[in-house]
Amino acid sequence: MALGPILPRRFYARDTIAAARALLGRVLVKGATAGIIVETEAYPGGDDLASHSSRGLTNRTRVIFGAPGHAYVYFVYGMYECFNIVVEPEGRPGCVLVRALEPIAGLDEMRRRRPAARRMEDLANGPGKLTIALGITLRDYGADLTRGSLVVREPMEPASFEIAVTPRVGISACAALPLRFLIAGNRFVSKI
DNA sequence: GGTAGGATGGGCT
DNA sequence: GCCCATCCTACCC
User: Does residue A107 sit in helix, strand or coil?
Assistant: First the structure.
């Protein structure tokens, strides 16, 4: 598998919505497994009460207030971990939830980790599923995504695509905001 | 094809 | 004590 360069830190030092859109089509890599990011959600912080960072700096949310290009991983529903990418310039909160991947490398390893997935489309088409498929855990909290075993890279062949926009999934606060972004027509998104 | 309900535990009020 | 940025199974068209 040949991929382009690792995204530099400056890629992430921008507005949360712009980052959520720009991450579509880029490739999330963990060890020997990798997938194209096909679905994201923006969590800008501030007035957005759905953002964990909107209630201020706590032990859980501290990485969101730090330097961009790091991993914010949190535990939810007693069972699952969700993977976010810290964005915005350092000191300003903002993160992007990665909700679905199109698997492109390490498929056998993903299938072993996700025996419940009957089809390839189900390996990583949800935020809890993709962390299991790639082996991302709370130990990756704060990981630097510009170096090491968990990184984001440019794709080998950048594709052009339309971006579909919808409200975010599974939240109650600010539920109507159009902050979910998908590669239009992609089969690997969590839902239309 | 669709959905209701349960699993399961950390974070925060 | 309540609330979750979820997923899977069972069950029902």
Answer: helix
* Single-letter amino acid, residue A30: K
- Distance (Å) from CA A55 to C1' B12? 10
Q: What are the angstrom distances between the C-alpha of A36 and each of A25, A57, A66?
A: 6, 31, 26
The residue whose two tokens read 């935020």 is: A127
Whether the pLDDT of residue A65 is over 90: the answer is yes
pLDDT digits (tens, 9 = 90+) for A116-153: 999 999 999 999 999 999 999 999 999 999 999 999 99
For A163-170, the CB contacts below 8 A with 24+ separation are A163/A21, A163/A24, A168/A41, A168/A50, A169/A41, A169/A99
Are the C-beta atoms of residues A85 and A12 closer than 8 Å to each other?
Answer: yes
- Nucleotides of strand C under 7 angstroms from a protein beta carbon: 3-9
Q: Output the distance from A160 CA to B9 C1' rounded to whole Å.
A: 42
The Cα–Cα gap between A83 and A169 comes to 15
Distance CA A123, CA A111 (A): 7
CA of A82 to C1' of C7 (A): 13
